[in-house]
Write a structure and sequence with these properties.
By secondary structure, this protein is α+β, with helices and mostly antiparallel strands. Helices cover about 60% and strands about 15% of the residues. It has helices spanning about 5-30, 65, 70-90, 95-115, 140-155; strands at about 40-45, 45-55, 120-130, 130. Helix 1 (about 5-30) runs parallel beside helix 4 and helix 3 runs antiparallel to helix 4 (about 95-115).
Length: about 160
C-alpha cells in the first residue's frame, strides 16, 4: 500500500470513529439527560453531564443571531470540510492525516445535529468554584484534538530527506 493510501485510510478511520463515537454519545445523552438543563449527573466534583443545545457557533457565541441561520452554518461548515478534504489529499504526514480525519469527523457530527434538530447537542460540563466552561460534546473533543495534533506537527522542525511519518 502506498504511503498516500495509508494516510487517507488512517484519516477515514479517524473521521468515521470520531463521527460514530460523537453521535453515539449524543444519542445516549438525549435519552439519559432529558429534559434539558433539569437532569445533571455529577461524574466528578468538577465534571457534570448536563444536556444543552447550542444554536450558536463556538462556545455558544452568537446564539440569538445564529439560531435562524441553521442552513447558513451548515453550508459554512461543509465548506470548511471541503477545504480540509483538499488539505488531506495534499497532506504529507500520517500525523496530519490523523489530525484532519479527527477534525472532519467531529465537524460532520456537529453538522448532522444542526440538520437533524437545528442545534448541536452538548452534554459535557466542566466547572470549578461556580465557573463553568461552555458545555461541549465529543465532536468538539475530536476537533480540538485534531487542531492540537496539527499545531504540534507544525512546531516540529522539518526533516528534509526523510520519509514522512
Amino acid at each position: 500500500m502506498t504511503d498516500r493510501r495509508y494516510r487517507l485510510r488512517l484519516a477515514v478511520i479517524a473521521a468515521v470513529l470520531a463521527f460514530l463515537i460523537d453521535q453515539g454519545t449524543k444519542l445516549w445523552a438525549l435519552e439519559a439527560l432529558w429534559p434539558p438543563y433539569q437532569v445533571v449527573v455529577e461524574v466528578l466534583p468538577v465534571w457534570n453531564l448536563r444536556l444543552g443545545f447550542n444554536t450558536g457557533v463556538t462556545f455558544g457565541m452568537f446564539r440569538e443571531s445564529a439560531a435562524g441561520a441553521v442552513w447558513t452554518l451548515v453550508l459554512i461548515k461543509l465548506g470548511v470540510v471541503a477545504f480540509l478534504l483538499r488539505w488531506l489529499w495534499r497532506g504529507e504526514t500520517r500525523q496530519e492525516a490523523l489530525a484532519l480525519g479527527l477534525i472532519i469527523g467531529g465537524a460532520l457530527g456537529n453538522v448532522l445535529d444542526r440538520v437533524r434538530i437545528g442545534a448541536v447537542v452538548d452534554f459535557v460540563d466542566w466547572h470549578y468554584a461556580g465557573w463553568h466552561w461552555p458545555t461541549f460534546n465529543l465532536a468538539d473533543v475530536a476537533i480540538v484534538s485534531g487542531v492540537a495534533l496539527l499545531l504540534a506537527a507544525s512546531a516540529r522542525p522539518a526533516q528534509h530527506g526523510t520519509r514522512p511519518t
